[in-house]
Amino acid sequence: MVATSQHGRQPVTSHWRFLRGPALLRPCERRPGIAGPEIVAPGMVASAQVIGAKMAMEMRLPVARKPFSESLGRETKKHLVVPGDTITTDTGFMRGHGTYMGEEKLIASVAGSVERVNKLICVKALKTRYNGEVGDIVVGRITEVQQKRWKVETNSRLDSVLLLSSMNLPGGELRRRSAEDELAMRGFLQEGDLISAEVQAVFSDGAVSLHTRSLKYGKLGQGVLVQVSPSLVKRQKTHFHDLPCGASVILGNNGFIWIYPTPEHKEEEAGGFTANLEPVSLADREVISRLRNCIVSMVTQRMMLYDTSILYCYEASLPHQIKDILKPEIMEEIVMETRQRLLEQEG
């Protein structure tokens, strides 16, 4: 097939060749004065300089894996169900969340793992929206400023609410909220700001009311936000952790995880409204990036997230470069090593 070039000077001969990649068939241009066909990769513009340059190719071959404990393969299997599966035909059990009674048998209404507490049976969904509970620690993003309240996105079915009266004023001042405070709401928190808060109440429709009446809550500064499934975050007494690797994490029960450099000194008089905007060093950025990739690896392998598991996964990833952690074979190796270390710790 012969076509005319864009400038109309020389004819361009096009040939069809088989290429590997997203495009199975792609025309390859052969230009006069250049020896051999010019292969144009998807998304690239070929030129004479590109043809003469050497191209680096990365190849990953299977290697011998580290020997892991045999107990990893003998983990207790969970009872997984899908909607419509019969959980039990015993009528002595009580119906919990994710189940319903039908024809004298207990049937699952969601896909997940069956959990039993005495005579109560419920199904915990593997991937679902956040269902708020009083006392949960959440990380959210301001989506709207309304009259005496902020709307917050917390990965739940409905937007959460942060009332003006449910937060500390700048400087930790304790007094009634006035009209001047209401006019200055956007100066406190505006659209797009990230905050950490605690669930104060859950309404009948499932909406969540938040509060930030502690100096450890409030506006978040520089860091990285990772969104995971809420079912993978382990419930603990505290969800604010300063890891010895040089970074801190906030494990929100709603599946929002905030990774940020550990501050040298905490400004308690700021009332949670002063964001640290100082330049972050290269070493801290590398630690944060490694922690982020480790969390993504654990989420891919469906592993529970808490401070010990994240720290063990971080230490297991140190022999590898940060960009290599997300490779499937390295990801599996790191998570398997983390699981083995956790099993050895449990004894």
From TrEMBL:
It is found in: Cytoplasm; Nucleus, Nucleolus. It comes from the Eukaryota. GO terms for molecular function: RNA binding. Residues 80-117 form the Exosome complex component N-terminal domain. SUPFAM superfamilies: Eukaryotic type KH-domain (KH-domain type I), Nucleic acid-binding proteins, Ribosomal L27 protein-like. Keywords: Cytoplasm, Exosome, Nucleus, Phosphoprotein, RNA-binding, rRNA processing. Coiled coil: none annotated. GO terms for cellular component: cytoplasmic exosome (RNase complex); nuclear exosome (RNase complex); nucleolus. Gene3D superfamilies: 2.40.50.100, Nucleic acid-binding proteins (2.40.50.140). InterPro entries: Exosome_cplx_N_dom, Exosome_RNA_bind1/RRP40/RRP4, KH_dom_type_1, KH_dom_type_1_sf, NA-bd_OB-fold, S1_RRP4. CDD domains: KH-I_Rrp4_eukar (cd22525), S1_Rrp4 (cd05789). Residues 129-200 form the RRP4 S1 domain. GO terms for biological process: CUT catabolic process; exonucleolytic trimming to generate mature 3'-end of 5.8S rRNA from tricistronic rRNA transcript (SSU-rRNA, 5.8S rRNA, LSU-rRNA); nuclear polyadenylation-dependent rRNA catabolic process; poly(A)-dependent snoRNA 3'-end processing; TRAMP-dependent tRNA surveillance pathway; U4 snRNA 3'-end processing. Residues 223-263 form the K Homology domain. Component of the RNA exosome core complex (Exo-9), composed of EXOSC1, EXOSC2, EXOSC3, EXOSC4, EXOSC5, EXOSC6, EXOSC7, EXOSC8 and EXOSC9; within the complex interacts with EXOSC4 and EXOSC7. The catalytically inactive RNA exosome core complex (Exo-9) associates with the catalytic subunit EXOSC10/RRP6. Exo-9 may associate with DIS3 to form the nucleolar exosome complex, or DIS3L to form the cytoplasmic exosome complex. Exo-9 is formed by a hexameric base ring consisting of the heterodimers EXOSC4-EXOSC9, EXOSC5-EXOSC8 and EXOSC6-EXOSC7, and a cap ring consisting of EXOSC1, EXOSC2 and EXOSC3. Belongs to the RRP4 family. This is Exosome complex component RRP4.
